[in-house]
Amino acid sequence: MNKTKKIPVLERVAKINEQIADENRALLRANNLICINIMGSPGGGKTTLIENTIIRLQGEKKIAVIEGDLATTIDAERIMALGVDVLQINTGGMCHLDAPLIRNALKKMDLSSIDILFIENVGNLVCPSSHDLGEDYRVIIASVPEGPHKPKKYPVIYKEADVVVITKADLLEYFPDFTEKILFNHAKEIQPEILTFSVALKRNESMDEWINWVKSVKPKIRE
Amino acid sequence: MNKTKKIPVLERVAKINEQIADENRALLRANNLICINIMGSPGGGKTTLIENTIIRLQGEKKIAVIEGDLATTIDAERIMALGVDVLQINTGGMCHLDAPLIRNALKKMDLSSIDILFIENVGNLVCPSSHDLGEDYRVIIASVPEGPHKPKKYPVIYKEADVVVITKADLLEYFPDFTEKILFNHAKEIQPEILTFSVALKRNESMDEWINWVKSVKPKIRE
Question: How far is B180 from chain A (nearest CA, A)?
Fold first, then answer.
């Protein structure tokens, strides 16, 4: 028996995802659009942030959205109501999106007409982190009611993130243990280059810095 | 080639987990203790519910806790501060607890001295649902800021649940789209037998129904 031989199944699956992610990236680049993968816990405010971003950039940027969900079209209906193109991926119980699912979605979209493509991942702070979709940027939503320790408790997803957005900052006064500084510091300990924003959408304020970032993003240069 | 032959890998892993879960269950039964698996999104209030339950049942029930986390001991330290036995499982990035991890934990605990064992699962509304740990009851935490649609959006975990506890009900006035009735109705559409509780721990009230249930639970009779 050859002891150096290993069963290659898991590694091969990961490699296939990587390869298709690179193909997705090349397709997005060829169509000159920026792709932003929004990740976070269930109910953290991913859809609300995308909705408000669409509203603020109406007339300036052509936005489209891929919605990842286990089973429903609840989020996709909210986005569609704003008049933008939305494509729903129901994962049928799977805990994350992967590159092949995104490839299938991209085939059904008119990519040449889009400036910014948001992908809303399945609500989950663990599994989406290990699946490159071909996106330019990874944004993590950290809502105030979740508490300030999420970067420490879910370090893997923060390590691969480009941006963290604190949401539901309207509620800061009800969570005295939560300050933006604590969460941002924890996030920077894990990923020193991470960009940090905070939004309070119920008060409809403090979106400016996030919006300026979205408006100005260029394709990510990868080493 | 025999076409009826299948590669049995995935099925066998699931079967091993089931088998060890049954062994865990037998061990818990032999020691006359009830085991409650607490599941929910990151930051939903799992640890806070366990903390407050320990405080309310001090002197009445001997409680112990197994804490599941990706990387830290933050939650375990909170529980230990209350003077109860706590065992930390760091999953090293894995998105759920499984029966073998619990078996290893049970070996390190003095089971004969415990009335109720809480297991706090990894914060995740997807993956923990498909792993029987040997617990008697599965409790899902649904915090108000997450919104009322979680049972519809994460049906798999609700289908296997015995109890849903709405947490952070203090915040109901800030979420006009959330009523307890909407969430409970959605949960009952998926699992008609599910028990429903609601707690507002910052106001330190409305714990009575939940506490009465915890005090009165008997080993679950399985068909």
Answer: 16
pLDDT-based confidence at residue B1 (cuts at 50, 70, 90): very low
Scanning every residue of chain B, which has its alpha carbon at the shortest distance from the alpha carbon of A124?
Answer: B124
Out of A71, A150, A168, closest to residue B145 by CB: A168
CA distance A149 to A153: 6
A42-55 pLDDT tens trace: 999 999 999 999 99
Fold (topology level) of B10-214: Rossmann fold (3.40.50)
Q: A10-51 pLDDT, tens per residue?
A: 566 778 999 999 999 999 999 999 999 999 999 999 999 999
Q: Measured between alpha carbons, how far is residue A168 from residues A44, A83, A105, A143, A161 in Å?
A: 8, 25, 30, 6, 20
A100 in reach of chain B (CB within 8 A): no
Residue A155 to residue B95, Cβ atoms within 8 A:
no
Beta bridge partners of B196: B164
**CB pair distance less than 8 Å for B202 and A43:** no
- What is the Cα–Cα distance from A12 to A15, expressed in whole angstroms? 5
- Using CA atoms, how far apart are residues A82 and A104, in angstroms rounded to an integer? 24
Q: Quickly list DSSP for B7-36.
A: --HHHHHHHHHHHHHHHHHHHHHHTT-EEE
Q: Which residues of A touch B71 (CB under 8 A)?
A: 152-155
| Residues facing A143 on adjacent strands | A167
Contact A168 B153 (CB under 8 A): no
Q: Using 50, 70 and 90 to split pLDDT, how confident is the model at B204?
A: low
DSSP state string for B75-104: HHHHHHTTT-EEEEEE-TT-SS--HHHHHH
